[in-house]
C-alpha cells in the first residue's frame, strides 16, 4: 500500500484507521462531505476529497492514483427518522464506491461490515464467520442495511474485485465523536444516567486494534474472506464493573427484566413515529440486547495477526477521552 482512499475517515473507526495508515507510511486521501465535522482529522497530513458516496463520477476521480480502498463509511444509528437515507448510504453507497473501485482497477479493497450481519446463536456460544444467518435474523434498519450492503459487496467478487470483508465487533476507545451507541452507554454511565442494566453481552475490541485489523486485512487477508475483528466477550454487567474500577463511580446493581423493557421500547417507538423525535429507549437496541452478541475472532488472529490489547485499557482510554472532551464529568 502506498496511496489509499478512505471513506468514513471522520468517524470513530475511520479516524483511528487514518492514524494507523499514516504510521505505516501511507499517503491518505479521505472522502469527506462538504461541511462535515472534521475534528477527528485535525492536524493530520492527509488529502481531503470532497464528495458523496452516491456520486460515482466523483468517486472514480477520487480513487485515481490510489492502490487500496478502505470503505469504512456507514450510517450507524439505532433509530432514524428516515430509513430510506440509511439504505441509500449503506447499501447503494457501497454499490457505488465498489463499482468505482472496480473501474479503477485497485489492487485491494477492504469493506467494513459488522458482526451484526453474522449469525449468532444468542445463548453465549460465540458466533463465527460461518455461523448460519439470513436477512430475517436482522433487527432494525441499521443491521438490515448492513446485511444488504455486505451482500452487495460479495456480489462484486464475481466481477473480479479483490475484496476482503472485515466484521468489527464493538470498538471502544478515543475519538468516538458522535458517540456510537456503545460510546453513549459509557457516557451515560459516567454521567450517572445508567441506574440499571439488562442481561446481555458484547464483544469489545480496542478501536486502535480494530483499525490495525483493517490494514492487516489489506496486507494478508484472503480475497473473498470475512474476518471478525473482535477481542473479549463480556456481559454488560461485567463491562459496568470494569467502568466502576476505571472511573471510581458505582456500577448499577439492578438487573432489569427484559419483557417490560421491550414493551416500553415498543411504546417509545410508537410515540417517536408521531413526534419524529428519537426514542428514549430505541427498540432495535433492546431487541439486540435479547441476545448475548458474543463472537470468535480466532480466524483474524491466526490469519491476520489481529492484535488483542486489554479491553480494560481501551475502556480507560474511552473514559479519559470522553472526560477530556467534555462529554462527561
Please provide a written account of the structure:
By secondary structure, this protein is of the alpha/beta class. It has a domain at 3-179 and 204-234 and 293-311: Rossmann fold (3-Layer(aba) Sandwich). Helix content is 43%, strand content 16%. The protein is built from 11 helices and 13 strands. It has helices at 12-23, 56-63, 83-104, 140-157, 181-190, 207-220, 236-247, 258-275, 283-288, 298-304, 311-324; strands spanning 3-7, 27-32, 47-50, 68-71, 108-112, 163-168, 170-172, 196-197, 201-206, 226-229, 232-235, 254-255, 292-293. The chain has a 7-stranded parallel beta sheet, sandwiched between helices. The protein is globular, with a radius of gyration of 19 Å.
Largest sheet: 7 strands, parallel
CATH fold name of the domain at 3-179 and 204-234 and 293-311, please? Rossmann fold
- According to CATH, what is the class of the domain at 3-179 and 204-234 and 293-311? Alpha Beta
Summarize the amount of helix as a percent range: 40-55%
Global structural class: alpha/beta
Question: What letter string, H or E per element, gives the SSE order?
Answer: EHEEHEHEHEEHEEHEEHEHHEHH
Write a compact overview of the structure shown.
This protein is of the alpha/beta class and 329 residues long. 43% of the residues lie in helices and 16% in strands. It has a domain at 3-179 and 204-234 and 293-311: 3-Layer(aba) Sandwich (Rossmann fold).
Amino acid at each position: 500500500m502506498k496511496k489509499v482512499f478512505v471513506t468514513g475517515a471522520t468517524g470513530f473507526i475511520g479516524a483511528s484507521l487514518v492514524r494507523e495508515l499514516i504510521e505505516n507510511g501511507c499517503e491518505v486521501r479521505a472522502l469527506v462531505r462538504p461541511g462535515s465535522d472534521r475534528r477527528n482529522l485535525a492536524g493530520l497530513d492527509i488529502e481531503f476529497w470532497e464528495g458523496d458516496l452516491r456520486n460515482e463520477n466523483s468517486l472514480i476521480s477520487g480513487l485515481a492514483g490510489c492502490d487500496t480502498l478502505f470503505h469504512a463509511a456507514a450510517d450507524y444509528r439505532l433509530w432514524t427518522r428516515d430509513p430510506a437515507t440509511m439504505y441509500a448510504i449503506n447499501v447503494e453507497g457501497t454499490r457505488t464506491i465498489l463499482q468505482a473501485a472496480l473501474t479503477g482497477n485497485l489492487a485491494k479493497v477492504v469493506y467494513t461490515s459488522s458482526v451484526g450481519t453474522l449469525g449468532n446463536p444468542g445463548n453465549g456460544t460465540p458466533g463465527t464467520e460461518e455461523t448460519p444467518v439470513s436477512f430475517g435474523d436482522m433487527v432494525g434498519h441499521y443491521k438490515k442495511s448492513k446485511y444488504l450492503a455486505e451482500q452487495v459487496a460479495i456480489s462484486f467478487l464475481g466481477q473480479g474485485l479483490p475484496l476482503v470483508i472485515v466484521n468489527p465487533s464493538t470498538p471502544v476507545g478515543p475519538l468516538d465523536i458522535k458517540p456510537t451507541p456503545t460510546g453513549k452507554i459509557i457516557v451515560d454511565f459516567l454521567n450517572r444516567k445508567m441506574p440499571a442494566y439488562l442481561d446481555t453481552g458484547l464483544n469489545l475490541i480496542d478501536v486502535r486494534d480494530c483499525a490495525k485489523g483493517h490494514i492487516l486485512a489489506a496486507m494478508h487477508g484472503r480475497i473473498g474472506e470475512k474476518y471478525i475483528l473482535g477481542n473479549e466477550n463480556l456481559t454488560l454487567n461485567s463491562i459496568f464493573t470494569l467502568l466502576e474500577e476505571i472511573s471510581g463511580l458505582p456500577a448499577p446493581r439492578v438487573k432489569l427484566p427484559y419483557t417490560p423493557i421491550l414493551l416500553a421500547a415498543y411504546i417509545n417507538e410508537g410515540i417517536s413515529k408521531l413526534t419524529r423525535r428519537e426514542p428514549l429507549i430505541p427498540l432495535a437496541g433492546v431487541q439486540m440486547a435479547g441476545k448475548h452478541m458474543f463472537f470468535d475472532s480466532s480466524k483474524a488472529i491466526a490469519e491476520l495477526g489481529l492484535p488483542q490489547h486489554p479491553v480494560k485499557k481501551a475502556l480507560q482510554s474511552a473514559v479519559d477521552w470522553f472526560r477530556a472532551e467534555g462529554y462527561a464529568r
